[in-house]
Amino acid sequence: MNYEVKGNYLFIDLEGIYYSSVQDLFDELIPSKKIQHLLIQNKWITMDDNPVKRETALIGKKLKIDLYPVQTEYPIVETKPDIVYEDELFLIVNKPNGLLVHKDGNSSLTLTDIVGSYLRENNIPGEAKAIHRLDVDTSGLVVFVKSMIFQPLLDRLLMYKQIKRSYIAIVEGRCDFKRQTIEKNIGSDRHDSRRMVIAKRGRSAKTTVYNLYSCGKYSVLRCELRDGRTHQIRVHLASIGHPIINDELYGTSSPLLKRMGLVANEVEFYHPLKVEMMKVKIRLDSDFRKLMEYVDEEEL
User: Is 121 helix (H, G, I), strand (E, B) or coil?
Assistant: First the structure.
């Protein structure tokens, strides 16, 4: 797809595009009926500067879409986000542990606040909408979408498992498997509101685990999620006898690391404008790498 973004507007070159009508384009890129209605009603979408309807044939030269029709006045905060990737639609941030993605009614500062402040301070149009979240004690990549127009598409991709997230976990004990798939339903712990448990009547959850290397006391694993249940990796690994180190809910403390041994280090997703899969990966922090090296060197 040939496109360019100027200011608040996305311009799509209609020559060679395979959508035959505005509705065809909506069905593929903008699945929300509500947003489709707003685009047409408010003239947020035009073709060669003329209003369009759902049945309008895409036979002009340029399609113009207002990418950021709604602006939010985010408060300015001192903390700056660790931005790993940014373009007109996406902003991917490396979240530190100890920080919530969204407000929970108690915390004073969230990752969304920090990203929103960054957008406002730098006069960048768009909104700070995280399309998934990480536990407060998990560090790593969080994907934000800036445009409310394309947020429903990303929500749909996440729902249909077309956004892939990979984690590195350092766990207790030596793992004897090379690859293992854990499929166990997860539900709330009736006795402790902070915890989740394996429950027959819980929500389905599937985690694929790859053993990178193990020593006598610890193992380094790569985990891939099919679902995004609360505490999914933590509960699944604890259920097979390999809780994540320094997991205060499901494991025990370790002097080798001052935080929980779980990092969301890689995300792969479909970019609707570039029409290609994007992969973003971060380099692990030095304390995490040193512990991984220790396990590797101690491997028997």
Answer: helix
DSSP 8-state code for residue 228: -
What is the Cα–Cα distance from 228 to 150, expressed in whole angstroms? 21
95-148 tens-digit pLDDT: 999 999 988 767 689 999 999 999 999 999 999 999 988 989 999 999 999 999
Q: How far, in Å, CA of 51 to CA of 73, rounded?
A: 29
Burial of 271 (0-12, 13-18, 19+ CB in 10 A): middle
The span from the CA of 175 to the CA of 241, in Å, is 9
3-class DSSP assignment, residue 26: helix
Q: Which of 66, 113, 135, 137 is catalytic?
A: 135
User: If 0-12 CB within 10 Å is exposed, 13-18 middle and 19+ buried, where does residue 279 land?
Assistant: exposed
Q: Specify the pTM.
A: 0.91
Which residues, in sequence order, are CB contacts of 246 under 8 Å at separation 6+? 253, 254, 257, 258, 259, 260, 261
| 135 catalytic per annotation | yes
Please, which residues have CB within 8 angstroms of residue 220's CB and are 6 or more apart in sequence?
168, 169, 170, 211, 212, 213, 214, 292, 295, 296
Q: CA-to-CA distance for 108 and 13, rounded, in angstroms?
A: 44
Amino acid identity at 115: V
